[in-house]
Amino acid sequence: MALHGRRVESPSSINTYKQCPRKYYYQYVEKLPTGTSIHLIRGGVVHKALEDFFEADLSDPVTHDYRFLHARLQSLFRKYWLRNEERLSSLGLAPEELDQYRDESVVMLQAWFSRFKARMQKRVEKRGVSFPEAFAHLKPRREEEYLSEEFMVRGFIDAIHELDGKVVVLDYKTSKNGYITPEYKLQLAIYALLYEERHGVRPDFVGIDFLKSVEQVLKVDEELLNQAKFELEQIHASTSSEGIDDYPLRPGPLCKWRTGQCDYYDLCFGGVSVEEFRKRKR
Ligand code: SF4
Fold first, then answer.
1. What is the SS3 assignment for 100?
2. What pTM does this model have?
3. Which of 5, 24, 205, 232 could be cross-linked to 17 through a Cys-Cys bond (beta carbons 3.0 to 4.6 Å apart)?
């Protein structure tokens, strides 16, 4: 999407450009389709389960039980996993491999739930609030879309907590590493900028909830917001051209790896033209 001649960027388009300008060109200038992967599908399923989890109806006292909440989360996961069965089998993975990803995701959600439960218990026990009140306090705003016409950037924020006078903006990650990489930091800086622009106040913290293990947050300060502004200026300046030659190839480990290859590998190294590529994907 382009507004006033500039493309609307996103944390992922910027990170794609940084990895390989040619990949950015194929994906965002030519708008060639991308493939899917187990990580994308699994991420979507887990995000959807977490999003719906907070819709729990706790009006009946029988539901005031952590086992009820845990069972709800796992059953939402199963529901969305089954709904994606066709896409999952189209990946061509061995059934045992798919089972392994499914089981790993169940464990990941268990780990997330244990941390959530500990927070709820703390509120119930230390602050004397009821079970449904503690749940409502910890319920974030979810999957909110932010679009800035000034900075020409869009983001979908997984969870916004406004709790005890503090605003914490979180992104859920299913990846293993429990630390904030430069790519993640840029994503969070952009979220902070988008939040501040819309609400007129700066979030206190932005962070990544590594679902398997830990939540890592960064304090939002002027430096973080300036980083987002700087990176956005850079990307708009670097991507104003529509000519392929302005987007050099950056061959590296992301071209081909043990179990797969870049969506555009055949365009770069297999002599396939953009037109042929489009035809194949129709
Ligand atoms: S195959 Fe390699 S060089 Fe080509 S677009 Fe993908 S990452 Fe870039």
1. helix
2. 0.93
3. 24
My answer on whether 130 and 42 are in the same domain is yes
- Is 185 found in the same domain as 233? yes
Mind listing the pLDDT tens digit for each residue in 243-263? 999 999 999 999 998 778 999
Helix (H) or strand (E) holding 44: helix 38-53
Structure tokens given for 129? 């609030």
Most ligand 1 atoms within 8 A of CB, residue of 18, 23, 24, 30 to mutate: 23
pLDDT for position 239: 96
Q: Which is it for strands 166-173 and 256-257: parallel, antiparallel or unpaired?
A: unpaired
Residues 87 and 141: beta-carbon distance below 8 Å: no
Range of the domain at 193: 142-238
| Domain contains 52 | yes
Is there a single domain that holds both residue 49 and residue 117?
yes
pLDDT at site 5: 64
How many structural domains compose the chain? 2
Instruction: Out of 15, 18, 19, 20, give the residue to mutate to test ligand 1, the one with the largest number of ligand atoms within 8 Å of its CB.
Output: 20
176 in the same domain as 88: no
Residue owning the nearest CA to atom 5 of ligand 1? 23
130 with 149, same domain?
A: no
Q: Is the pLDDT of residue 217 over 90?
A: yes
> What number of residues does the chain have?
282
Residues 42 and 134 in one domain: yes
